[in-house]
């Protein structure tokens, strides 16, 4: 399966060394992934590795073996400001000793109540390029059941979005665990987008299409953003201070948002 | 006797078993032995060379593993053999 990693049109692929691997197979998983990464080159695909917890007996061996120019990002389970900082410093040393060209990013997984409360500090750590909300473990920590409407994660989702956006990072939503419920996935993804998440982890390839559709700018959004940008240009050329689009007053935040959306659409080849 | 295994009998994988032996002896069973038997043996020999191992018995039960899998399973089995008997 590993060699099929780039055929699903996702933005990145997460290779999991943590929960998906039995304790007795941790050594085999690292060797397999290491040899796989040495054998294949991927273009336009972010290579992310979910390592084991930093205080586990496995993480040091994993880091020694896996960190290379072949990967882009490490995903850190049970992240805290302290262990995220420690990982960042370990990467400083590893990149230097391995004479690497790349600076490896970190996506901390916010999956403890205490991590939600220090999400801002975690987001501020060097190398962090996104925050992932880990809904399942967080629910366990909160002693609540996961529900379809996600009410139990309402505050955590909001705080992760705020912390990520304050540092201009990706706010990545928790995966939707029902792999055969497309309607539920669509609802959950749309809700996450509405509150500010700008990505979502998939746990099955059949979720990628829905998540891509929800999180990509829609045709209507692109058309409206184009109108706003054009109206701004017209207003500037005619010396108008204020202007409307479709009967709505347009001010700077709306113009900025429109430009951001067009940038995103450009990057994703949607224009 | 030092002996260890790594891998599975799942499709696209292989079960690699290694044990102490004077000299190198390799046994391969594969669903694609005719087509890829020589390549599997080549990967095993090259990996042993990289690891400077000259005395070992390797048994590979292949279920269509690619080169990187054969190599990874062999390295894991050898490491396990060392750890078990260290």
Task: Write the topology of this structure.
The complex is a heterodimer of chains A (271) and B (86).
Chain A: E1 12-16, H1 26-39, E2 46-50, H2 59-66, E3 73-76, H3 81-97, E4 105-110, H4 113-117, H5 119-123, E5 130-133, H6 135-142, H7 154-166, E6 170-173, H8 182-194, E7 199-200, H9 208-215, H10 219-238, E8 243-245, E9 248-250, H11 252-267
Parallel strand pairs in A: 1-2, 2-3, 3-4, 4-5, 5-6, 6-7
Antiparallel strand pairs in A: 8-9
Helix pairs in contact in A: 8-9, 10-11
Chain B: E1 3-7, E2 14-19, E3 24-30, H1 33-50, E4 56-62, H2 67-84
Report the total helices of chain B. 2
Distance between the termini of chain A: 33 Å
Which strand-content bin applies to the residues of chain B? 25-35%
Order of strands, main sheet of chain A, comes to: 1-2-3-4-5-6-7
**What is the chain-wise order of helices and strands of chain A?**
EHEHEHEHHEHHEHEHHEEH
Assign the structural class of chain B, choosing from mainly alpha, mainly beta, alpha/beta, alpha+beta, or little secondary structure.
alpha+beta
Tally of distinct domains of chain B = 1
Largest interface: A-B, 12 and 14 residues
Radius of gyration of chain A: 20 Å
Shape of chain A: globular
Q: Note the gap between the termini of chain B.
A: 12 Å
The gyration radius over C-alpha positions of chain B equals: 12 Å
Overall CATH architecture of chain B: 2-Layer Sandwich
Shape of chain B: globular
> Briefly, what CATH class of chain B?
Alpha Beta
Number of helices of chain A: 11
Q: Trace the largest sheet of chain B across and list its strands.
A: 1-2-4-3
């Amino acid at each position: 399966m590993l060699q099929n990693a780039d055929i699903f049109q996702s933005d990145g692929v997460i290779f999991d060394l943590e929960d998906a691997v039995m304790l007795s197979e941790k050594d085999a998983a690292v060797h397999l992934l290491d040899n796989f990464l040495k054998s294949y080159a991927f273009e336009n695909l972010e290579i992310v590795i979910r390592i084991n917890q930093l205080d586990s007996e496995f993480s040091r061996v994993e880091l020694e073996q896996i960190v290379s120019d072949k990967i882009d990002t490490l995903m850190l389970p049970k992240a805290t400001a302290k262990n995220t900082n420690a990982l960042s410093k370990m990467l400083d040393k590893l990149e230097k000793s391995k004479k690497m060209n790349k600076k490896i990013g970190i996506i901390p997984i916010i999956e403890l109540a205490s991590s939600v409360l220090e999400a801002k500090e975690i987001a501020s750590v060097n190398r962090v390029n996104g925050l992932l909300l880990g809904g399942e473990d967080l629910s366990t920590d909160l002693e609540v059941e996961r529900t379809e409407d996600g009410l139990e994660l309402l505050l955590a989702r909001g705080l992760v979005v705020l912390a990520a956006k304050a540092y201009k990072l990706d706010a990545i939503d928790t995966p939707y665990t029902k792999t055969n419920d497309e309607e539920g996935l669509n609802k959950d993804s749309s809700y996450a987008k509405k509150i500010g998440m700008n990505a979502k982890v998939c746990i099955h390839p059949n979720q990628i299409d829905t998540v891509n559709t929800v999180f990509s700018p829609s045709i209507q959004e692109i058309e409206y953003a184009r109108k706003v940008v054009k109206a701004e240009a017209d207003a500037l050329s005619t010396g108008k201070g204020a202007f409307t689009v479709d009967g709505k007053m347009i001010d700077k935040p709306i113009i900025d948002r429109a430009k951001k959306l067009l940038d995103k659409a450009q990057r994703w080849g949607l224009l | 006797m030092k002996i260890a295994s790594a891998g599975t009998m799942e499709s696209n994988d292989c079960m690699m078993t290694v044990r102490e032996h004077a000299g190198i002896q390799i046994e391969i069973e594969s669903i694609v032995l005719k087509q890829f038997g020589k390549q599997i043996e080549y990967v095993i020999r090259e990996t042993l060379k990289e690891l400077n191992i000259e005395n070992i018995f390797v048994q590979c039960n292949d279920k269509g593993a690619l080169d990187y899998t054969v190599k990874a399973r062999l390295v894991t089995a050898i490491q396990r053999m060392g750890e078990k008997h260290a």
